[in-house]
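Q: What does the assembled structure look like for these inputs?
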Amino acid sequence: MKHTLSVLLLNKPGALSRVTGLFSGRGFNIESLSVAETLDPKVSCLTLVTHGDESIIEQITKQLHKLIDVIKVTDISEGEFVEREMVLIQVKAEAHTRAEVLRVIDIFRGKVVDVSPTTYTVEMTGPESKIKAVIDILRPLGIKEIIRTGTIAMARAPKK
Amino acid sequence: MKKMTGAQAIVKCLQEEGVNLIFGFPGGAVIDLYDELLDSDITHVLVRHEQGAIHAADGYARATGGVGVALLTSGPGATNGVTGIATAYMDSIPLVVLTGQVPRALIGNDAFQEVDIVGITRPCTKHNYLVKDPADLVPVLREAFYLAASGRPGPVLIDLPKDVVASKVNFPEKKKIKMQTYQPNYEPHPGQVEKACRAMLKAKSPVLYVGGGVILSNANKELTELAKKLSIPVTMTLMGLGGFPGTDPLSLGMLGMHGTYAANMAVAKSDLLIAVGARFDDRVTGRLDAFAPHAKIIHIDIDPTSISKNVGVDIPIVADCKLALQAMNTWFDRLKDFDPKDFAARHQPWIERIDVWQQEHPLTYHDEGDIIKPQYVVEKLNELTGGDAIIATEVGQNQMWAAQFYKFNKPRHLLTSGGLGTMGYGLPAAIGAKLAYPNATVIDIAGDGSIQMNIQELATAKQWGAPVKIAILNNGYLGMVRQWQELFYNRRYSATVMEVTPDFVELAKAYGAVGLRAKTKDEVEPVIKEALATDNLVIMDFIVNREEGVYPMVPAGKATTEMLLV
Ligand SMILES: Cc1ncc(C[n+]2csc(CCOP(=O)(O)OP(=O)(O)O)c2C)c(N)n1
Ligand SMILES: [Mg+2]
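A:
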């Protein structure tokens, strides 16, 4: 099962490597990881996507919590949440494919952010599934390079 | 708020924590601190290798229950300490390790004797720090002591750049430490306590499975009270020995790979397993699905990550062992019509069943005339010290025989590297304990292989007046590995025969210690008596049966009921 964990940790040198070291040292996997400062500059938020059965996720959560620099760990995939990832895709755009590329980008509400005589660089955001879908569709047209940010996620605010 | 040097502030912090003994080895990066120590009332014990400093601080901590402190220089000094730190980490021993570091401006430049010790020790410390801002120095030191000793204890390392130690710092008032990110839970949840107690009311064949947590939380009294109140048999892990009196009729001795037949059978047949401060280590459980297969499991542990890590737990109690056991005792005391006699009667059939196992396969060995059996040596040590000595061990067969045949009746009397299994631990640990308790008899039960790993600490023992007694069970082999080769590798003794071993009697003399040797069984007792009678450091070299094995033995990966017996 895929889980998205949100980890608040002190914004201190070495704090991130405590987290990643925990994963490598204990053989847990990290599918994606994204981290930046929160509203409070002393605190960073790390969104981490991982796989595992219930007991592994429980161990991961507890082990993360045990790190002295970690403030809070939430498995936000347990409830309702919004997730987004951003990708930059440099795709071949030759005379006979330019129009097709643009159409695909348009359907996925992507944006062309750089153009060369033979390529488009496209920016796109969405849940991981959408990113995967657009990559699958553009692949046959010739992707030269992609850079993904990894997922960030936030629990939905209570509606009442 | 007074301005002083970083070095002065460090010494003041140590005094504030009540530290009067530290272990270390100097070098360029810590020379300012050493200079300051000279004028302080803190005794610095100069070891002969940094690994020895950490193990000695660890032995001191295990024996006293306090925090052990070690001081190492940067680079090789710090890396030499890593095995010691990992040893303490695996057994949850509170240490504060101070390491020197190159000046801040040089960090990251591959400067002389620079090493990223914070990076290296991240996975084997409870927490660690590189102090980059002199203003953090005092708060970090205080926090380090707090972290080391609280919650699930462990080693904390502080890396100190040379220029930070030399700079001027403030010494703020000490306040109670409160950390936003670290709040260990000590108090047991009353609902969980009640659930656990009700399970105990119902159980017909309960067993208490006790680990090092009972020692660490000083819960031996509470544990003993509960066991006796409810007539529940107790088995201990290597780390738990002494948590319950080994000579008590309810004691089943150690469980697991080299545990007693009765202990392993009792766990396998139990209907309720009460794990207290134990962590279901693979050396204890054997094949997981066959471990206590019929039992409901209660697990008390201060560390939530220990719970349901290897074995699913029915009633988890995240709490300090002492407080949890206290709460249970109180629960039964308040129970209407509760009478320990009823429990004694109810558990009688279960205890009788265990007695049969004990009689069928007691801990034993074959006597072979004049040949010294290592188990006999440990039995004699037990007898001649009245079971009252502080015993450090090395690692291997010697360690297991010490655990099996020395009857530990008190906590903090066994100093042994359980989690990491570090050869070379015993001698420096024994020195640490002896310096803490100069009047105690402290014995390192050693192997001929392990003792050579930190043999240089004989000089430390001599210099600092720590006349420990070393009992080498000399089998001429890396015996434990040899035993595996004998049993599982067709007796192919690859690299386990030590063809050259020093003459330990002469070696003792070279260090100004007493060397004694016993080659036959009847020489064992006189040698031990002589060793105990002298005030000096002693090595006893017992030439024991070369291919003796440790039994019972559960082969790795087998169920704990599949024991190879004597
Ligand atoms: C530092 C270290 N290296 C290797 C081992 C693996 N090992 C475990 S027991 C053992 C043999 C120890 O020999 P000795 O000290 O003579 O003890 P014996 O088993 O013979 O009593 C070895 C090599 C270890 N535990 N620690
Ligand atoms: Mg040996």
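The longest strand of chain A covers residues 81-92.
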